[in-house]
Design brief:
The protein has 184 residues and is mainly β. The chain has helices at 32-39, 168-171; strands at residues 2-5, 12-15, 18-21, 24-27, 47-54, 58-64, 72-78, 80-87, 98-104, 110-113, 117-123, 127-134, 143-145.
Length: 184
């Protein structure tokens, strides 16, 4: 498994080895020992989530505050998404910076998002099935969010926002400057 550093400290991309033949392919999508030895990251995952969405769905930006933040290890089982994170760690050199990456069933890239990041994605294909591991359980009391179209962030979602399919909850998230954020 190849580990790719991003411009934002802590955000890592994992490129698994894919073994293809005339029957199809095989890949090891998660191996705790390999991830720890190649990246130095030790994350005890406790929950798996899976979502199916149609084209132009935009989900995010979501996070969980302290004391129950969630790190995520994301991959796409079917289709293609534009995955976006925003650094919400107040003492980070890249505070308020966003990073986006195309994750797809075809490229098989996986994205490790540590604590201190808001996360969201838009669906670029007709449908997309997204799978991710979390290191903490969902806790409604600590959930946070940021308005996806906050002009201060200037995120390019790779979809026309006039045609995006967005939940009422996400349409009503606060701007970055007003979001409750416990990450130093």
């Amino acid at each position: 498994m190849n580990v790719i550093q991003t411009p934002i400290e802590g955000l890592l991309i994992f490129e698994p080895r894919v073994f293809r033949d005339d029957r199809g392919y095989f890949m090891e999508s998660y191996n705790k020992q390999v991830i720890e030895s190649k990246s130095g990251v030790t994350i005890p995952f406790v929950q798996d989530n899976q979502a199916l969405s149609i084209k132009n769905v935009l989900r995010g930006l979501h996070y969980q505050n302290l004391p129950s933040p969630q790190a995520k290890f994301i991959r796409v089982l079917k289709g293609c998404i534009w995955d976006v994170v925003v650094d919400i760690r107040k003492n980070s050199k890249t505070y308020k910076h966003w990073y986006g990456i195309e994750l797809s069933a075809e490229n098989k890239l996986q994205f490790l998002i540590p604590h201190g990041f808001a996360h969201g994605y838009s669906v670029l294909s007709d449908t997309a099935e997204v799978f991710y591991k979390c290191d903490n359980y969902y806790n409604k009391a600590t959930e946070g969010g940021i308005f996806y179209a906050d002009p201060e962030l200037g995120i390019d979602w790779k979809v026309n926002l006039e045609h995006a399919i967005i939940s009422e909850k996400d349409k009503n998230q606060p701007l970055f400057q007003n979001a409750v954020n416990s990450f130093e």
